[in-house]
């Protein structure tokens, strides 16, 4: 008897099977006579007051007498879902010195217990309704706000009303008792510890320098150990009473319901909210100010040099202006768009300079308004060597040229074309914009004190600026980007003594000569002028596969294509090309070239096109080119549209047929890897990123992160030798899913992939190689890091299997890992506050017959490592012995059901399920059971899987500080 094994289903029965239950044709919650909101103001939408931006009439805005403002909108993407946001205009900038961290701490306590939930009931309640923890139910605290989020699937009138009622009770009346405080403070401290180390020190030094003299400089949302440990229930209650007031609240409700229903629901549960005591205005956040005596032409102010051993060099300087609440009108947005084009021209030049041998690995500029505290233009760069002055001068000379001379019209046209494609895509996708994204847009607009605009308005405004996209106008916009009150800078270096603040200040204050070497005024390239891939071919077969209108096309050269025409995402097409042998085809001595592949392979060019040519040719088209290496296959992927589909297919096919081998991207990728390597050993996360894949595969050298010595020996010539072989091997499957014209798509395939030469197969011996797993020992394998002494991480893993015969098991194991994860979270975080975010996940590769793992991971204090291993092993053994409870199973099954119901509306979901089906019948055979495999999962199945895979001890790994190697057990 094979556990969970099912015989393949005959294709003849496919047409009779629906892979998922059909979504309700209409699950809109209709309005009744009782749904008459009293405070809706369609004639006076509060977010548009004072602006001439056209009102997006799909929104209904209201404002209650107590001060609560709301925005509601009907939206059926995904069907039946309701997205709720409750934003409180209070973040870390609203804290007093002895309250630092209270806004974030309060976020945790709101979920702990409230007037509408008992202790620890909130998350399980929403899980039972299908809302997954973290994705659908969550909260966030920023310097300026705290926002509570709920995405409720499968909502009806009752669950909508009850959920809004409960969220209102959570926010307005949390139970801020000493007992709850005692449980949440350790969790927040654990979260703070996970953010500790070099990353936090750099972040704190950066904000302290850039926002010197302002509240933002010393008010990170995570708070301080002293204020968190000193928190009392009375003090947290006082913070809540001061800021959690109706005047500070905005409620956003978007979903599959009549707007009157949504508005009436918000009013029913928030209209009676009353603030305690007099209203307290927000404190003054302060402005960036130049130091006395600063040069008004070049007002360099505060600078800092941070020394963090092992961290890559980096430098950022900012031209800062005060944040000013703007009149968000059309003219303001026109100026903004012109500034974005100006920044795009400068960034293209900086990229050109880096590619052509500049002294920096990368550099870029961007304008950002930070936490209602500053309006800044930020310039960031990564020096290639320790000669940071040369790199900074190099970047500044490119910017100086952009400030002194107008750009070429061709440079502007390239940037404009890219923006136009992006805005057109926004318009095409607006019909299927998710309700959760729409809700977040309102929250974001409130945060920056601006209005919202429809995608159609964005496009209209952008195109209305076209007459001003002239060289002189872009020059003016560029100069405005670099006008400000003060210039501040921060540098990160791994070496003490490499730079001082005085040297950095002097360098920034010294004028540089403009350098026009990075200008790019080359003419546009036409796809019609490129060489053909080969002789076009017609398909030898074209067959319907009997499910979801999926069609398979086979060409004489062996290329197989899968086509799915779905118009529910208008204008969107995904192309995924699978070929070759993936990691299995990479030699044991070729790990360094596997590491360089994703960074350099695409940029090394195709045919006559090099990097800059690829950028120019794609400027006015929707094209992309991603590359990844999977266990048993290589993948190209691009997001495009029907009118650009043939060009997208050409790029992929030409990469296989006539790859170019520009050495510059290889050298740049090599430099990037060398710069990054030392940072891996500076905290537990870095060690995991460096070594976990390698260790989980039984020390397979192909998966090892190359050492600096190995990276230095890598050459462009050997890179070409390795990748020429890998690109030439293996069957090709081209999946084209989305809003397509099938006949035109097949014709384009015939001129691209159908025109390829017949390929060599992947050697059978390569395909047969099993993927290893580490040896189980009595004690954890121990690695060390050179970071903070209170940081550690641990992994426990069990070996699974692989192969498409196990697709059903793969789905069941996904549920088992989520049950395990919930228990681990409860055991470590909720009971002891020992870890902020432990999790368990499983993998079951389909393209190879081995390599699957189920593993749990946690970041934790070194002294608590034994507790993690003991907890994880106890959970594994209990699941194997007793299985989960029915409630535990339902808490993961219902979110899975709802995810499937929501995800099926997009073509990418089906692409992920069906990739590989051209050569593997199991992908199709097991598709019809996908919903049932989750929906009908039983406690007995979960226990059987746990008995099979978790009954023996797992492999254990701990990463500890170097001075405490003996931590753990």
UniProtKB/TrEMBL annotation:
Q: Where is the signal peptide?
A: 1-24
Classify the source by domain of life: Bacteria
The UniProt entry's sequence similarity note says: Belongs to the peptidase M16 family.
Residue ranges constituting the Peptidase M16 N-terminal domain according to the UniProt record: 75-216
PANTHER family documented for this protein: NARDILYSIN, PROTEIN YHJJ
Please give the Gene Ontology molecular function terms for this protein: metal ion binding; metallopeptidase activity
Q: What is this protein called?
A: Insulinase family protein
Q: What residue stretches are annotated with the Peptidase M16 C-terminal domain?
A: 232-418, 714-893
Pfam family, any one: Peptidase_M16
């Amino acid at each position: 008897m094979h556990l969970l094994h099912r015989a393949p289903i005959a294709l003849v029965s496919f047409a009779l099977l629906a892979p998922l239950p059909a979504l309700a044709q209409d699950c809109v919650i209709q309005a009744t006579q009782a749904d008459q909101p009293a405070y809706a103001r369609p004639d006076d939408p509060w977010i548009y007051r004072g602006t001439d931006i056209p009102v997006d009439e799909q929104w209904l805005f209201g404002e209650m007498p107590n001060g609560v403002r709301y925005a509601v909108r009907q939206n059926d993407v995904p069907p039946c879902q309701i997205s709720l946001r409750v934003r409180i205009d209070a973040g870390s900038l609203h804290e007093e010195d002895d309250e630092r961290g209270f806004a974030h701490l309060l976020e945790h306590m709101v979920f702990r217990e409230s007037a509408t939930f008992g202790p620890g009931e909130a998350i399980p309640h929403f899980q039972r309704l299908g809302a997954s923890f973290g994705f659908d139910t969550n909260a966030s605290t920023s310097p300026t706000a705290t926002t509570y989020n709920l995405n409720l699937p499968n909502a009806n009138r009752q669950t909508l009303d009850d959920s809004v009622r409960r969220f209102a009770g959570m926010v307005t009346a949390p139970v801020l008792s000493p007992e709850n405080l005692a449980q949440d403070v350790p969790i927040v401290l654990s979260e703070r510890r996970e953010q500790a180390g070099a990353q936090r020190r750099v972040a704190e030094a950066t904000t302290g320098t850039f926002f010197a003299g302002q509240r933002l400089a010393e008010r990170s949302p995570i708070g301080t150990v002293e204020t968190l440990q000193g928190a009392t229930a009375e003090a947290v209650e006082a913070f809540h009473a001061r800021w959690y007031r109706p005047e500070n609240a905005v409620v956003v409700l978007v979903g599959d319901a009549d707007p009157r229903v949504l508005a009436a629901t918000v009013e029913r549960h928030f209209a009676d909210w009353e603030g305690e005591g007099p209203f307290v205005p927000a404190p003054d956040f302060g402005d960036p100010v130049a130091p006395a005596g600063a040069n008004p032409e070049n007002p360099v102010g505060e600078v800092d040099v941070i020394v963090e051993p092992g961290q890559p060099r980096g430098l950022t300087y900012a031209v800062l202006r005060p944040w000013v609440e703007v009149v968000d009108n059309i003219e303001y947005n026109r100026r903004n768009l012109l500034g974005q084009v100006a920044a795009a021209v400068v960034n293209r030049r900086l990229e050109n300079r880096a590619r052509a041998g500049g002294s920096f690995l990368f550099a870029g500029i961007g304008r950002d308004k930070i936490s209602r505290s500053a309006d800044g233009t930020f310039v960031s760069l990564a020096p290639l060597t320790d000669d940071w002055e040369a790199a900074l001068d190099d970047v500044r000379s490119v910017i100086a040229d952009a400030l002194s001379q107008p750009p070429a019209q061709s440079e502007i046209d390239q940037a404009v074309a890219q923006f136009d494609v992006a805005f057109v895509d926004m318009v095409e996708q607006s019909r299927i914009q998710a309700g959760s994204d729409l809700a977040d847009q309102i929250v974001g607009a409130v945060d920056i004190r601006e209005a919202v605009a429809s995608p159609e308005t964005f496009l209209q405004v952008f195109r209305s600026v076209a007459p001003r996209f002239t060289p002189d106008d872009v020059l003016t916009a560029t100069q405005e980007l670099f006008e400000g009150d003060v210039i501040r800078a921060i540098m990160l270096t791994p070496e003490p003594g490499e730079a001082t603040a005085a040297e950095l200040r002097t360098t920034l204050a010294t004028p540089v000569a403009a350098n026009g070497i990075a200008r790019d005024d080359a003419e546009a390239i036409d796809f019609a002028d490129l060489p053909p891939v080969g002789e076009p071919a017609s398909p030898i077969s074209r067959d319907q596969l009997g499910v979801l209108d999926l069609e398979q096309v086979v060409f004489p050269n062996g290329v197989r294509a899968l086509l799915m025409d779905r118009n529910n995402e208008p204008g969107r097409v995904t192309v995924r090309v699978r070929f070759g042998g993936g990691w299995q085809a990479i030699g044991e001595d070729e790990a360094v070239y596997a590491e360089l592949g994703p960074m350099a392979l695409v940029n090394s060019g195709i045919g006559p096109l090099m990097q800059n040519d690829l950028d120019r040719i794609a400027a006015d088209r929707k094209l992309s080119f991603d590359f990844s290496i999977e266990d048993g296959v290589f993948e190209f992927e691009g997001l495009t549209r029907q009118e650009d589909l043939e060009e997208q297919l050409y790029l992929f096919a030409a990469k296989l047929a006539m790859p170019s081998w520009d050495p510059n991207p290889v050298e740049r990728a090599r430099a990037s890897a060398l710069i990054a390597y030392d940072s891996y050993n500076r905290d537990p996360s870095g060690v995991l990123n460096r070594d976990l894949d390698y260790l989980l595969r039984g020390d397979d050298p192909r998966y090892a992160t190359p050492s600096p010595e190995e990276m230095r020996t890598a050459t462009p010539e050997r890179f070409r030798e390795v990748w020429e072989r890998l690109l030439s091997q293996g069957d090709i499957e081209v999946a084209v899913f989305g809003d397509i014209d099938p006949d035109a798509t097949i014709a384009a395939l015939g001129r691209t992939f159908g025109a390829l030469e017949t390929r060599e197969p992947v050697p059978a011996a390569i395909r047969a190689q099993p993927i290893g797993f580490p040896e189980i020992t009595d004690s954890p394998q121990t690695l060390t890091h050179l970071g903070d002494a209170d940081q550690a991480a641990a992994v426990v893993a069990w070996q699974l299997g692989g192969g498409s015969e196990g697709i059903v098991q793969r789905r069941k194991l996904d549920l088992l890992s989520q049950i395990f994860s919930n228990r681990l979270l409860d055991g470590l975080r909720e009971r002891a506050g020992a870890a902020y975010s432990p999790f368990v996940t499983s993998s079951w590769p389909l393209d190879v017959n081995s390599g699957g793992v189920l593993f749990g991971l946690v970041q934790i204090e070194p002294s608590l490592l034994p507790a993690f291993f003991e907890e994880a092993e106890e959970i594994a053994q209990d699941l194997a012995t007793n299985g989960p409870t029915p409630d535990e199973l339902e808490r993961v099954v219902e979110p899975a059901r709802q995810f499937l119901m929501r995800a099926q509306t997009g073509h990418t979901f089906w692409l992920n399920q069906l990739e590989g089906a051209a050569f593997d019948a199991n992908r199709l055979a097991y598709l019809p059971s996908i919903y049932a495999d989750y929906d009908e999962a039983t406690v007995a199945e979960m226990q059987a899987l746990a008995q099979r895979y978790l009954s023996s001890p797992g492999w254990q790994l701990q990463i500890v500080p170097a001075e405490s190697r003996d931590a753990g057990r």
